[in-house]
Write a structure and sequence with these properties.
The complex is a heterodimer of chains A (about 80) and B (about 280). Chain A is built from 3 helices and no strands. Chain B has a 4-stranded mixed beta sheet with strand order 1-2-4-3, with helices on both faces. In chain B, helix 5 packs across helix 8 and helix 8 crosses helix 9. Classes of the chains: A mainly alpha (about 80), B alpha+beta (about 280).
């Protein structure tokens, strides 16, 4: 499994790896937003709809930006040899 | 930045939203106007004195007259590699040359590269790229701020794992918006400028030689970390992809490869570069 993931990672272009790590960084931010909201609203399970709404909105914006970026990068980026 | 206006409208009402819009527009206009000065200060550039660089001023005047534009000012900055870029708005332009370019390139090669920069000014892509460079460069600088904050918080020195990880994470956050700014708003006039420069200097092989030389020198001897947000300003791409920490730079490599640039010049102007 790990070898397969490594193979996929090696086959990816540099800008695709950069986008992947960027996605992970934004997920870390989402984690901290959820932690902050849980602390502010004092509870996780009773505020689940709010948290799900925040997550859905955040993920929608992030995926839209990623799709636009992927489209632009595929067209314009030059791969270094 | 304009995303702020609807948020202000929601919290503060129409008057506050209009006021914030006016302030934002003023801020953007002044940023646009002062972007060349900010970038010149960013690279600690100093104006080339006519007394010591008379040959360079004469060369610039002759190249500018070829393109029928007012002679741009010449600035010098300290870098280990031969690098040129242009900044400016509203018909007041400056061409910035690294001091090592003066030592490494011969007079003909320097003239060819100056012609490239002046061609970019003549095309009109410089004002937009200056502003885009400032915005994208400023966004990218936030990753350095993150690294310094982690160092000041006691997570170690510059080369230690924790500050580097903080920087990597911060770069993941800032690279995407900065790269999108460069891709959406930046104007890539490299190939057109190459063509115009080769035509103006009448011997395209000089430009090919100069580009190869500058590029080889950058690949072998570059010691600086250039801001990826400024890459659309530079004549040759100075970014290197050596390790995983340079990965985000790959989002900014929009300049055509030197091989492609040279082959297009040779295709148009013949193998010896003559038309």
């Amino acid at each position: 499994m790990f070898a397969m993931l490594m193979n996929i990672f090696k086959l990816m272009k540099d800008w695709q790896k950069a986008l992947l790590f960027s996605f992970v960084s934004y997920m870390v931010v989402l984690f901290f937003i959820i932690v902050a909201v849980v602390f502010i609203m004092k509870g996780f399970s009773r505020n689940l709809p709010v948290l799900m709404g925040i997550t859905a909105g955040y993920m929608f914006l992030l995926f839209s930006t990623m799709v636009v970026a992927r489209h632009l990068f595929r067209k314009r980026l030059i791969e270094e040899e | 930045m304009l995303v702020i206006v609807p948020i202000v409208f929601y919290f503060g009402g129409a008057y506050v939203a209009v006021a914030s819009l006016v302030v934002l527009l003023l801020l953007l206009t002044s940023l646009y106007r002062y972007s060349p000065k900010i970038l010149l200060r960013w690279y600690r550039c100093h104006e080339a004195e006519p007394a010591t660089q008379q040959g360079m001023h004469d060369m610039m005047a002759s190249v500018a007259s070829e393109f029928a534009i007012p002679c741009p000012k010449i600035y010098l900055f300290d870098a280990s590699i031969p690098m040129l870029f242009s900044v400016g708005t509203r018909k007041a332009y400056s061409v910035v040359i690294s001091e090592s370019a003066l030592n490494i390139l011969d007079e003909d090669e320097l003239r060819a590269l100056l012609a490239c920069e002046v061609a970019k000014i003549s095309i009109g892509s410089v004002p937009v790229n200056t502003f885009v460079g400032l915005i994208a460069g400023s966004i990218m600088s936030l990753s350095t701020v993150a690294m310094w904050m982690s160092m000041l918080a006691g997570f170690g020195q510059e080369k230690d794992a924790a500050p580097r990880f903080a920087r990597f994470l911060a770069m993941g956050l800032v690279s995407l918006p900065a790269a999108l700014v460069v891709h959406i708003f930046g104007v890539n006039s490299t190939l057109k400028a190459d063509d115009m420069a080769a035509s103006a200097i009448t011997d395209g092989s000089l430009l090919c030689r100069a580009l190869y030389r500058a590029n080889n020198y950058i690949r072998l001897h570059c010691t600086e970390d250039f801001n990826p947000g400024h890459v659309n300003l530079f004549l040759v791409n100075p970014l290197r992809l050596n390790d995983i920490f340079d990965l985000y730079s790959s989002m900014f490599i929009i300049k055509p490869d030197i091989g492609q640039r040279v082959s297009l010049i040779k295709e148009k102007y013949g193998r010896d570069g003559q038309r």
